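Hello Y.,

Per our agreement to keep a running log of every chain we model this quarter, I'm adding this entry. I've kept the format consistent with earlier entries: sequence first, then predicted structure.
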Amino acid sequence: MSESAPRPTLEAVAARAGVSRATVSRVVNGSDGVREPLAERVRRAVDELGYVPNQAARSLVTRRHDAVAVIVAEPETRVFADPFFARQLRGISKELTAHDNQLVLLLTEDRDDHARVARYLAGGHVDGALVFSLHVDDPLPGLIRSAGLPTVFGGRPHWNGGEDGVRHVDTDNRGGAREAVRHLLGLGRRRIAHITGALDQTSAVDRLDGFRDVMADPDPALVEEGDFTAASGERAMRALLARRPDLDAVFAGNDLMAAGALRALRDQGRRVPDDVAVVGFDDMLPIAEQTEPPLTTVRQDIEGMGRLMARLLLRDLDRGTAPAESDGAGPSGVVLPVTLVRRDSA
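Predicted structure for the entry above:
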């Protein structure tokens, strides 16, 4: 049985490149101050020897772990069943991978999970955090502040109206809802219902506000709360039909609820869009294209939102920006535009 070859050391790389150990260390750790010809010799020696930096030692020098916590404030059954989360995580993962950072996924379902996440963050295992799908009573923002980690939130923070310098990336939920309802009015629909998402989340509140902006003083009987799942969309649609059988359109707060609403309408013999027009929100492919009929919906760039969250956090980390100092490092909030995608349901 042969023994494995010893791992190449910094000294071996320095000898191969003909430079000092300190020069190799600066190049490997991404520090400035090394002339490009020397840096290229070091990189070539690293490749030739197959040198892999010792992460623990590197962290002592750079004070960075090259790891980011991605915290989703939902149970795992929801995260792995809803394609929205897969898209957002894909965008985050692509951006972190491009910058040689690791993604550490943390899910929260109950108070025990919050305590576990708080201990992990306070333990210094990651450089920063990306957080999304927060609910109004969620203790996570306070726990993260206590840990002192640079953080970017997905969605408008609910506290202080999101105007207190908290770094976040959001979609124009209110504007998108207005566009959806105006489209239905343009089709001649007048008894327009709205299936909201969970109203302890700012995205659902903003979409409800957009609906109300256009439907001045809407009939309360035409609004029913869901929770962003297909099952809740189906339940809400049945409740709306029972109260207002004369409704002629529905704007659902996301595509999953719209798909559930389409099932309820079909079961009750309503033709879409002839009897009832339906508009969703997200443009979640393939769902929006595979519903019967294909779904008219408001498109938001979910993957792009994830990438931008990660990009803003990495920029803060490179600048050494602490959460309390974030005001000088660019806009605290970025709102991404939306577009209406017209298909056969409305």
